[in-house]
Amino acid sequence: MTKTMKNIDSIGHLRGESLFVDDIITKQNTLYGLVFDSPIAHGKIVNVDYSKAEILEGVVKIFTYKDILGVNQIGGIIADEELWAEKEVHFAGQPIAFIVADSEAIAKKARSLINIKIKELPIITSAKEAKEKGSFINAPRSFRSGSTKESFDQCDYIIEGETFSNGQEHLYLETQGCYAYPMENGNIKITSSTQGPTQIQIATSKVLGVSMHKIEVDVIRLGGGFGGKEDQATAWAVMSAVAVQHLKKPIKHVLNRHDDIRMTGKRHPYESTFKIGLTKNLKIQAFEAEFLQNSGAAADLSPAIAERTLFHATNSYFIPNVKTTVYSCKTNLPPNTAFRGFGGPQGMFVIESAIAQAADEIGVNKRYIQEANLIAENDKFSYGQIATKVEAGNSWTSAKEKFDLKKLEKDILNFNAENSRFKKGVSLMPIAFGISFTNTPMNHARALVHIYQDGSVGLSTGAVEMGQSVNTKMIQVASQTLGISSSKIKLETTNTTRVANTSPSAASATADLNGNAVLKACKLLMERLRKISSKMLSVDLDSISFENDFVLIKNKRSDLSWEKVVAQAMLERVALTENSHYATPQINFDKTKEKGHPFSYHVYGTAITSVTVDCLRGTYKIDAVQIVHDFGKSMNYGIDLGQVEGALAQGIGWMTMEEIVYNKKGQLMSNALSSYKIPDILSVPKKVDVIPLETKGNEMAILKSKAVGEPPLMYGIGTYFAIQNAVKEFNPNYKLKFHSPFTPEKVLMGLYES
Ligand code: MOS
């Protein structure tokens, strides 16, 4: 009875009734916070003069590091990030103080009255420069398998090159924000737009110098996260909590778009080099890559993101000899952070570039090299995990057949022969994305299920709803397991007092982890209710099940309703609440050896992308993206399809049009929607076809329905290479470059270079 449910938020969103942080009805005496941030990317703070701002009417207090009763530290993985800068600033946009006033407008006015003197220090903006100067976040990491050195000696072709992939602004519709207010006894409640409520609880307790149990974090839903609110929702909540601690008044702090874009980190830009070796029959024997990750001024999640780059450096290919190294380079940009794919896309862009360069030099179509090296059953990934239930070959072959690649290639050949101004290009993009937090201890979740005495159900999990419809999936799991209609089940807010010590909603793993906890809790409740039913009906326990709000006897509906069984359970004093814990089995990873089995499974798929380039203007249109995707056994196809389409658009945006520009002073030039372009209805593919790969599903996934949040983003990488192929059609002298985004300006230069 896997009935497809509509996203439970559809109607609320459509009517504008869904609540986001900025919609919360504020309490009496609410004050408003605003961050004063550094205008300079690197320097010593000589003096900050708050005097004019402080005397402005309506300004209540300006908070600085001096007001912190605990530690001035919000770094998660590494303690290297001050909440408010003390002596030095390390990026433009770094918070220095927090103005609290009667209104946002007053706070803004006050901000303009603060005078700061900074003695400027040298600024690093590129990863390469950071590496040259030895400026790193932590020690580099390397994955090795086989011996690339020996293998290269036996290769017929050895190709080297370099790539750059730019960052990406999350541009969640809802900007960062929180609403914090005092409870009794110094307790504080924070409603935040965060993917990681526990992260906020931990950081707030440290900065305020109080225990975690004094801080309650509640999340209703997010207007988008995309990784940008995994770690970077924390600072704003903590600042507000400091103000609550001192003023004992509610504080609201919702960033405006300019402040948000300027002060928050983005997807990491990567500068990388590669060396790839192949045999005459196009088998890749060896691959080396060095990734320079532009981490920004503090660690944030960079080390974990760097690690995921290594995990995905060979994408869906089997390469026997691999040596990959990643450096997290410390620069004077805002700390870069999680963004859908979490370093995976950056790694995959490099191997795809290496294959494209190799194909170009050898003189074959890139897809023959891709096809000859797809990972197969029992092949080993460079990190030691044996590939099982592999769908790389299946999805590849299926995409070629279902979308008739032969005909498409022939049509494009004809089109290009007949047209001189417009050229078409096509590319194939396979993906293999590992599911689980690569940090094994994070792979756990809990669910709290209450059956109320009228038969309605309240469901709490650690999952954060951010538009991915995880709440809908949780209700589906409960509804299916309890055999009751979804309308009887309410999904509660995500709250640290109901479900504690949660991992952030990230790594595409939220539905798997929390869903399995829901499943477990509901099964336990079901056992009790089945026992009661069997007594009430005087039939064997084995013959009892629940469906459509009624008890079934040997799969035939009885007259006994769910409500009656629940009422009887109350009379018999049977527990109608269950709290279950789920931890992903089987996974492990040994960082000292860089080997293990970090992923519970992989998601596979193949996209065929075709584009048309206007060779006079350098502009292009994406004609179609045709995808065979491995959903496993999708539990909600409407939702999953939405994830594929959205991720694809985001991947295409990253690869083609979203251009982040910092100047040499480390200041963000692309700081508004006038200068930063994301895909709109006119730039997305004219046609997106998605066909689910036929599989039995994966036992490790919730109800065999595979994780779907991040993997499809990487189909967007195919667009880069389709455009490249079209440019090459027009200009045979074009020398392949791997420098994303492939903007129309770069296309135009490529079309006319000699
Ligand atoms: Mo996601 S990029 O794992 O928050």
- Please indicate the percent range of residues in DSSP E strands (runs of 2 or more): 25-35%
How would a textbook summarize the main sheet? 8 strands, mixed
Gross geometry = globular
Radius of gyration computed on alpha carbons: 27 Å
Bound compounds: dioxothiomolybdenum(VI) ion
Distance between the termini: 62 Å
Mean pLDDT comes to 97
The overall strand count is 30
Poorly predicted spans: none
Helix content bin: 25-40%
Q: What's the helix count?
A: 19
What is the strand arrangement across the widest sheet?
3-5-1-12-9-10-11-20
Structural class: alpha+beta
Question: How does this model look, in words?
Answer:
With 754 residues, the protein is of the alpha+beta class. Helix content is 29%, strand content 25%. It is built from 19 helices and 30 strands. The strands form seven sheets. It has an eight-stranded mixed sheet with strand order 3-5-1-12-9-10-11-20, sandwiched between helices. A six-stranded mixed sheet has the order 7-15-14-13-8-30. Helix 9 (302-311) packs parallel to helix 10. The N and C termini lie far apart (62 Å). The chain binds dioxothiomolybdenum(VI) ion (MOS). Dioxothiomolybdenum(VI) ion binds next to loops.
